[in-house]
Amino acid sequence: MTSPTKFDPLPLAQRLIRCASVTPADEGAQTVLATELQRLGFSVTKLRFGAIENLFARIGSGGPHVCFAGHTDVVPAGAGGWTADPFAGEVRAGILYGRGACDMKGAIAAFAAAAADHLQTAPLRGSISLLITGDEEADAIDGTVRVLDWVVEHKQIPDFCLVGEPTCPVQLGDMIKIGRRGSLNARITVHGTQGHVAYPHRADNPVHRLVRAVAALTAAPLDAGTEWFEPSSLQLTSLDVGNTATNVIPAAARAALNIRFNDRHTGASLSAWLRAVLAQHAERFDLDISISGESFITQPGGAVEALRGAVAAASGAEPKLDTGGGTSDARFIARHCPVAEFGLVGASMHQADERVPVAELRALAGIYRAALEALLATLPAPSPGPSLTPSLAPSPARAQAPPPPSRA
């Protein structure tokens, strides 16, 4: 196993936690990080879109270009159950408590420490950047997608991106995510003709039609899975009529469902399938679909194997390559460059007393340092791109850009 970095990630993690940056609030978190990165020599550009604070920081101007992506926003602390102040960054018995300790202010601090360590050990080969948003835990409208627009416009696209989500289920180092399933939400309204239950021939019962349609949608699995993905899953989340009368056939019936789908499908293909099945059972219906992300996969080999080898050597674990779980901002980054996710053990994320052992936080910094060195050594060096001019001024708003679908 690798030794922890000379730069301790704990103080920065505590300062970030003490900013109560519940989406969309920032409460100074981005400034705390920007100040630290500038101290390390990064050029920092603050990017505010709508109410959301984001930043892109880079050191170096040539390739290879390795980017770390993450978010400073957190979910609310909740109504109770905490034994520590969720925004105090308290260390008790060797454990750091606080909202964001695990997801994912701890990982941001660990990467900053890893970058600082790397920059002191040898001349930089290529570039290191951080893409940090304040809008990951909510709708993801004014965060990573908008920053990526800016990155593309300014020709700052990375050669590889590492997202610091908490990926490890049991032990630090045991899982790297190289893809994610897509997510589709659908709301169905089947229309009928209201009438008296004693005279059904004078009515058209939409409940019967909806039940038959739902039965057809759930009759068989969507697929049996693929090489890197588990089987796609369709789950009904609501079936509702809202009828308080026992002698009235309602005029409409509604259902909602979510599909988490693998790389055998696309949002468009599933939308067409849903519409075709509904048309077989209902003459009149409304179908409202939102797709929060398509499935993606970063194929093993090259940079992924370099990352895997570095994590294994630095952690002593044998990381599994995986695509399970929910969505993350990696789904947006995958449109532009290869991406993988690796971070802390996620057992306490979004819970009361969210926490991380300080030793684990420091170990993550060491793993990130090893991963950064391996990626910079493995990725090819393209021709140099433009360097960033240091700036803490907001970039021009991009309000005219269409927002992406809301995150599931």
What is the topology?
Layout: H1 10-17, H2 29-39, E1 43-49, E2 52-59, E3 65-71, E4 91-92, E5 95-97, H3 105-121, E6 127-133, H4 144-153, E7 160-163, E8 175-177, E9 179-180, E10 182-191, E11 195-196, H5 206-217, E12 233-240, E13 248-249, E14 252-261, H6 267-281, E15 285-293, E16 296-297, H7 303-315, E17 320-322, H8 330-333, E18 339-341, E19 355-357, H9 358-378
Parallel strand pairs: 3-6, 3-7, 7-18, 8-17
Antiparallel strand pairs: 1-2, 2-6, 4-5, 5-19, 9-16, 10-14, 10-15, 11-13, 12-14
Helix pairs in contact: 1-2, 1-3, 3-9, 5-6, 7-9
Brief sketch in words of this structure:
With 408 residues, the protein is an alpha+beta fold. Helices cover 27% and strands 23% of the residues.
What does this structure look like?
The protein has 408 residues and is of the alpha+beta class. It has nine helices and 19 strands. Strand 4 (91-92) and strand 5 form a beta hairpin. Helix 1 packs antiparallel against helix 3 (105-121) and helix 3 (105-121) packs across helix 9. The longest helix has 21 residues, at 358-378.
Order of helices and strands: HHEEEEEHEHEEEEEHEEEHEEHEHEEH
Rg measurement, Å = 24 Å
Number of strands: 19
- Share in helix: 25-40%
Mean pLDDT: 92
Largest sheet: 6 strands, mixed
Put simply, the count of helices is 9
Structural class by sheet pairing and helices: alpha+beta
- First-last Cα distance: 37 Å
Catalogue the unreliable spans.
383-408
Order the strands across the largest sheet as they lie in space.
Answer: 1-2-6-3-7-18
Proportion of residues in extended strands: 15-25%
> What coarse outline follows from CA principal-axis ratios?
elongated
